[in-house]
UniProtKB/TrEMBL annotation:
It comes from Selenomonas montiformis. Keywords: Endonuclease, Hydrolase, Nuclease. This is MBL fold metallo-hydrolase. Pfam families: Anti-Pycsar_Apyc1 (PF23023). It comes from the Bacteria. GO terms for molecular function: 3'-tRNA processing endoribonuclease activity.
Length: 268
């Protein structure tokens, strides 16, 4: 059985939950990490799960905003430290576009100890992917795609498993129709939903280039996806978020909807 653990569900400035990031635990016991939040809180989040550093050899970083990329520096530092202590075997691979690659190289060069930075390019490898480019990992084929952000360059991805399961991460901005081939008929679709539609005048999602629950749900219905995961939300309704977001989503989407809390796991 595969499992997805959502490490954080909040937007960039969230203080009541962690920034949006997650990992997959795969059938062979390995882990695949996506983004890492905005700081060393990623270490605390991972510590509260069944994540094992020694079994994580692949990571994807969607874009260079602070709430996604800065935690990746801490992941790299932790992996390098594990390598220095003889607790990590093999290579750690990070997949990203060129802008994120350059950011990670610059920041690790400036902030890591020499003995830690020595692993970057040696056994911590940054793989630049271009729009539509594939990478074959042990458990799935990854296809990266440009979400056509109007802000910072950002990639999402499609994972295709041997059993035919299609798992699509759309990033944290509204869907671009040019990416329909990567999301249509997906078994799992991970989409941002900044707030409820009725709260749009309070949280101003459109000004931030985000969607509401309604729009994310209408999209999932149009794309014919089976399971919809909503995250990257405002953080003022956490106690009622699961119930309220789910109720709104079910008005527009007839598949299975998940509105996870931080550290919640979902089998898939």
């Amino acid at each position: 059985m595969r499992k997805m653990t959502i490490l954080g569900t909040g937007f960039a400035m969230a203080t009541r939950c962690f920034n949006t990031c997650f990992f997959l635990e795969l059938e062979d016991g390995s882990f695949f990490l996506t983004d890492a939040g905005g700081g060393n809180g990623i270490l605390r989040q991972l510590e509260q799960t069944d994540f094992r550093w020694e079994d994580c050899h692949h990571m994807f970083v969607t874009h260079g905003h602070t709430d996604h990329v800065l935690g990746a520096i801490w992941v790299i530092r932790k992996i390098a430290d594990q390598m220095n202590k003889g607790k990590y075997d093999g290579v750690f691979h990070i997949y990203c576009h060129d802008v994120v690659r350059d950011m990670l190289l610059a920041m690790t060069r400036m902030t890591l100890k020499k003995k830690d930075f020595a692993h970057v390019g040696q056994d911590i490898l940054l793989h630049e992917l271009k729009d539509g480019e594939c990478a074959d990992l042990p458990q799935f084929r990854l296809t990266a795609f440009d979400i056509r952000s109007t802000k910072a360059k950002q990639f999402g991805y499609l994972l295709e498993f041997d059993d035919g399961t299609r798992f699509t991460c759309l990033g944290d901005e509204p869907f671009n129709e040019r990416n329909r081939p990567y999301a249509e008929n997906a078994d799992w679709l991970l989409a941002e939903a900044f707030c409820r539609y009725e709260d749009r005048e309070i949280f101003h999602p459109y000004e931030k280039n985000h969607s509401t629950v309604r729009e994310a749900s209408e999209l999932a219905e149009q794309l014919g996806v089976k399971n919809l995961v909503l995250y990257h939300t405002e953080d003022r309704h956490l106690a009622a978020r699961k119930r309220e977001y789910t109720n709104e989503a079910r008005q527009y989407y007839h598949g299975t909807v998940y509105v996870p809390d931080d550290l919640e796991s979902i089998a898939f």
